[in-house]
Amino acid sequence: MNHFEPRGGQLFCEEVALEEIAREVGTPVYIYSSATLARHYQVFRQALDGEPALAGALIAFAVKANSNLSVLASLARLGAGADTVSEGEIRRALSAGIGPAKIIFSGVGKTAREIAFAIAAGVRQINIESEPELALVAELAEAAGARPSIAIRVNPEVGAGGHAKITTGAVESKFGVSLAEAERLYASAAASPHLDARGLACHIGSQITDLAPLAAAYDRLRGLTLRLRQLGLPVEALDLGGGLGAPYFNSPDPPAPAALAALAARAVEGLDVEVSFEPGRVIAANAGVLIARVLHVHARPDGRRFLVLDGAMNDLMRPALYDSFHDIRPLSPRPGPVRDYDVVGPVCETGDTFARARPLPPLEGGDLVAFMTAGAYGAVMASEYNSRPLVPEVLVSGSSWSLVRGRPSYEEMLARDRLAPWLSAGSITPT
User: Fold this and answer.
1) Which of 254, 255, 296, 422 is deepest in the core (most CB within 10 A)?
2) Which architecture, in CATH terms, is 4-31+285-415?
3) Active-site residue, selected from the candidate residues 1, 180, 348, 420
4) What does the mean pLDDT of the chain come to?
């Protein structure tokens, strides 16, 4: 469910007409619904709390899905933690009011600076993804006189996800350590006086629509937990990752959080462990839309129609990167027969194509359209390619809305660059 609904011939976000925001802020622009964020978090929370083995489990929102401070602060007020993969994401989580005891630090290539920052911040746990990283964390912990909590991230050799580029648990994936390595590395971590080896972690992919791969991964994590305990090693926590898919309107709905919770509860039954999850997309995706304006319709003699928008691949990368589907809706639909459009942006790339032969109501220059399910992996992946200003973001709550990241001016964009001294004004001899 989301809170973007038509009303009186216009598309609204909660109690605000999207055209009003587009008029005030300009386009393209991302718009997020506070009510949808809250509802999706609460559905996930209720699903976990409905299983005694998971009651109170940490929901660490995957900051990589949407790192806007107002989005993170909205979730923090509901009790969410944060799954982070960089120092910048840790800083964002802290700035949004998420305490370090609710922050998980993951990532396959953590730098010494980032690890030292996480140790100093006192994050809940650092997920170790390789033997060299384990040695580096122990070294930095010793230097800091600290004893950080760590979990070994296991690659269960079970891949899943909506695209090969977002599958993280397969044997060829760069993430985590193999099951064969995990016992040895966990034993090494548990023996270190500088580390608190608390548990295991696992994450197999994103946009998962079938629970079978998760069941296999959880089963392997349970088996490893039991083997480690037989060796006399304590395993107090299991990080079961995220990845549950969100509905993108072009396929059957993915499993509900309640189904995931039931599966996870069976996996941890009798283990008496703290459990954490790292959902991102399932909470944020349908809480956001990208609004773009039609520049013109380019009709070719062969009958092909290009719907040229002011929004581009640098604003929403997912279609170009993953061939992903986003439902496209006019904010104020015109009457008339549906026609097929190739929906494209102005960037100088053929890849700047959102959809081919998409059936849409009649559209003309100046009309506004909404890309639905754009609240996850949308603004966070945006860039200034083609020197296009970074897309702004707006948060709606009831009848109120606020610009929560502004669109930079061209002057601000150019000011970030510096001319080399030999290229400064007056230093170049005309030819």
Assistant:
1) 254
2) Beta Barrel (2.40)
3) 348
4) 92
